Amino acid sequence: MATLWRALIVEDEQPARASMRKLFLKAAIPFEIVGEAGDGREALAMIRELRPDVVISDIDMPVMDGVKLLKAAREEGFDCRFVMLTAMSEFEYARQALEHGATGYLLKLSLDLQGLRETMDKVARELEQREKLRKVDKWFPDESRAEPTDHPEMNRIIGYIEEHYAQEITLKGLAEFIRMDASYVSDLFKKKTGSTLTHYIQNRRIRAAKMLLAETDRTIGDIGHQVGFENDNYFIKVFKRWCEMTPNEYRKQAEK
Fold this sequence. Notes:
Elements: E1 5-10, H1 14-27, E2 31-37, H2 40-50, E3 54-58, H3 66-75, E4 81-86, H4 91-99, E5 104-107, H5 113-139, H6 152-164, H7 171-178, H8 182-193, H9 197-215, H10 220-226, H11 232-243, H12 247-255
Parallel strand pairs: 1-2, 1-3, 3-4, 4-5
């Protein structure tokens, strides 16, 4: 049975919320609408209470707009996916939302079943990947949570790596994420964590790979790609450097 993901609709106009509900039903997608909110402040309270997997949020709303809602949810540590509802005139805000981690956006005036299905299929894939990677935290309970530093922006970087380590992560991208100079970020991260960014990301990926090697029958190449290594040979080289054995040797040892 397919997973049924929990969705929260955030839209200040009731007819628009009703229309979204109808589209969800017609689209036959694996999402259940568990709540509705009329503005960002109300939505943030519902996120805390309902813990939805995805938030479908209008951008232009009273009290707290959709972009501010996304930022507030991330600051509080919620990793639900966000899809923004926008008019063409609000596209700059949609771009900002994407920069802060939104999965995508839907144009309200031209929203149809195909567009909804395509976007929500992408959300479902991200959620499935998130659940797979969360198993690492259960498998390595003592190692899965990074020790916080005394620097809030370095903690933001650590949180970003924890959530996105299977994706491409660059120093430039992390520096832009916290709006700091890349060279300064590199030096400060090592000072606060005792590890270079490269080693920190590699370590996170290798821990994920160890879980997948022990608990799944996926190929070495598939596992390397799933945890963020594009090249099989590089994955094996890095794994051996960290574990003093190859992925195959680790798998055989785990089986015993």
